[in-house]
Each structure stands twice: as C-alpha cells, then as structure tokens.
Design goal:
about 30% strand; alpha+beta; about 30% helix; globular
C-alpha cells in the first residue's frame, strides 16, 4: 500500500527542521487517524531530542526527523540530522508490516539525514549513543586520543 505524501505541510515541517533560522529542531510524521495511507505532521517542536522522545507513545508509529548540534570544541559546531522510524511496542502486527514498506514513500519527503535510528522503546533513543553514531558516520573523529605507536 503506497503512502500519500502530498500534504504541503510535510515539506514545510521538513524544511523547518533543516533551517538554522527556525527554532524547530524536530518533527514527527505519522499516519492520519482512520487513514493508514496518508502521512501527516503529527507534532513538531524546538526542545530537541528530549522533547521529541517525550511525545512518543507505545501505541503509535511514524517517522521522526531530528536536528542535532555536535561540537568537538567551542569553535566547531556541526549540524546533523537523524531519521527515526518509530514503532511503539503496542503497535499491531499489520501496521508494523506496512511501516517497512511505507518508509520508501517517507524518504521522498525526508531526503537528507546522516543516520537512521529505528526505535520501539524510548530507551532505544539514548542521546549519547546517537551522538557517538553521528561522529562515526561523519568520518574524522577529533575527540579520540591517539597513542604513540
């Protein structure tokens, strides 16, 4: 079943998260009530990963998009983006199965991200772990101590 992703609010929310000039740093894209084939903006905010995690429910499914700031020191700030396919532990089996197919349609909206972090429990979204994964995905790691041969 193809997912309808034509609502202009979807791209607006995506662009808001990507735009450094807006305070919006996360958005959650979910399925419209009673319409499992229609993607909508379910929530968005400016409280970062912690606020995003708070709004997740055990009986919901969807896709989160989060802007995260990384720094190695006070002079180097980098912005990274995380795609979070969320499927709460109480989501039914049929809905779970559809999500694996619908992600291709979601990626027509959420086109640019550094890592994908699938989650079914809030504990799967540990900020320190995500930052570590972002650093590894970014190539050079200037935080690591090197040994003298």
């Amino acid at each position: 079943m193809s997912l309808l992703v034509s609502d202009p609010e979807l791209l607006t929310a995506y662009d808001d998260v990507r735009d450094d000039k807006t305070e919006t740093n996360w958005a959650f894209f979910g399925l419209a009530a009673g319409k499992p084939d229609r993607l909508q903006v379910s929530a968005k905010g400016s409280g970062g990963l912690a606020e995003f995690i708070q709004q997740l429910q055990k009986d919901t499914a969807g896709w989160g998009y989060v802007r995260m700031n990384m720094s190695n020191d006070e002079y180097s700030q980098r912005v990274k983006f995380v795609l979070i396919p969320w499927c709460g532990e109480e989501v039914g089996i049929m809905k779970r199965a559809r999500l694996s197919i619908q992600i291709a349609d979601v990626k027509n909206i959420i086109r640019s991200y550094h890592i994908e972090v699938p989650a079914s429990h809030k504990a799967d979204l540990d900020e320190a772990d995500i930052l570590t994964r972002l650093r590894k995905a970014g190539g050079a790691n200037y935080d690591r101590q090197t040994s003298a041969y």
